[in-house]
Amino acid sequence: MKPEGRQPVRAEDEDEQRRLSVFHLVGLAAGGMIGSGWLLGADDAFRRAGSDAYLAWVFGGLLMLLIAAVMVELGTVAPKTGGLIFLPLQSSGALVATVVAAGLWIFYAINLSSEAVAMTRGLSWKVHGLLDSSQALTLKGWGYALVFMAAISAVNLVAPRIFFRINSWLTVVKVIVPVLTVALLIAAGFGPHSPHASGGGTGKGAGAALAAVVGSGVIFAYVGFQGPLDFAGNIKRWGRGIGEAARLRRAVFGTIAGAMVLYISLQVVFTKYQASYWSPAGIEPSPYAQFAFALSLWWLGWLLRLGAVISPMGAGLVFAHALTREVAALSRAHLTHRGLQTARKASLKRRYDVYWLVLVVDFFVASIALLAVGGSWSSLVAITGVLTLVVYAVPGVVLVSLRDHLTGWSRLRRGAREVLARTGFALIALILYGAGWAPLWRGMATLAVGCALLMCLPILARWLPAFGRMYDAKVHVTLFRHWRTSPAAQAALWLIGHFAVLTLLTLLGDSSVRVLPKLLGGFLAVAAALAAFEGLVDASRRHMTEVAPMLPTPGTGRPAAAANAANE
């Protein structure tokens, strides 16, 4: 009898039949990263950190590289499509997987609404009446945003081979536009006969730049590199050329490194030109379009107007598509409605491998989030930044917890990966603390709502037979009753407790309260994070002695032999 909540990993799994090349993987990573963040994030970062705003992009990029090193290592030794949810389930149990799933599901869904708002803003130069004087959505703007959300969802109904082709070539266009923008605006601003642009201003220091990493959308701009990791089980494994692990590393690390250079350059350009040419109340969808027209680079200005719609749409497509695979993994474990795991009923007169029901739920969640923040792009990306770091914190725990179940590591490599995992976990806590009270409490409140829904809806389904016929998921929240003896419950309590302590420390260190000195609060946040990490790892390892993990092996997609034997 198989353990509750575990599903065998099958080589013939419908999700993992398709093979993705490096071109497709880069299209997922860069397509997810280059959205609205590069268009709208520089202004907010400058207002928070002044001429030191470029440091926010440096800090954010370095953090993403560190986190990616852990996530890629896990994705190469245990490649699984939907692995961001599947692997925490294997290592730490259903409750930790539910917390991760709530954060991931909501931040992927919120991405749909934030990119739709960015598209609406990008069209405001042409269609009047979309924004009010404070750049908030009008009633007409709300209508456009909802239409854009529906359009992004609808494109995901095409056959996957067509989707990946569309996304990959769309990503090429999305990369060309900001690269040309940097090159031409730098040439215009630093050439011997360039027009004068007084930029710079006063820097506000590294602390302000650190706070801007979450609050101004820097993290939001870097989010998306995990797209290839969402499809780790689909990477091309045979034939000539490099192996699947090398393909994954090149796609992820190459995209992050390239994005760092691009984003830092864009911030430098904004800092130089903003004093002379930038007016947030202007009609242009992005500051770079204003700069281009002011410098008589008319064709670049028109290209940026087009990019202000295409870039957000492309990122929304990637997140909407990736979310279907992560929710499918959640559904297969019966942590949410089991009807979300299959594409068999999805049809446009053909049996396409799509998850239309997930897209409908995604649209509903995105609409609620958009309503809750009043259509504010900045509020959406701040919440997304918090939820992103919550989700990115867990793979390090999973990697260290699964140490004895993963093969092919030397002692030196294993030690290095464990150091990276602990360092990444602590730095994520420090970044969240540095973000400040306002974005952190909103993000944590959103996470709490998501966790409550995923954990309590199965109980409601038991109480109400009519609802139970529509929603079929296993009840796991009752594990908390056995927290003294259940390692899975203890792991979840360590994770939830870590977030609660971090939120409390952030409140005590907030400028409006100032009970705790900022520096001392940061030290305590890191110390508490390291303690929580060890508690999570210990509880997870004890959980795996009771329920052996079922992990795919590289190159086959099948469970490791040891895992199979343990579950027979």
From TrEMBL:
Membrane topology, from the record: Multi-pass membrane protein
Pfam families: AA_permease_2
Compartment list: Membrane
Keywords: Membrane, Transmembrane, Transmembrane helix
InterPro entries: AA/rel_permease1, AA_Transporter_AGT
GO molecular function: transmembrane transporter activity
Transmembrane regions: 20-41, 53-72, 84-110, 141-159, 171-190, 210-231, 251-270, 302-323, 354-374, 380-399, 419-438, 444-464, 491-509, 515-537
Keyword Membrane carried by entry: yes
Disordered: region residues: 548-568
GO cellular component terms listed in the entry, alphabetical order: membrane
Protein's UniProt name: Amino acid permease
UniProt organism field: Streptomyces roseochromogenus subsp. oscitans DS 12.976
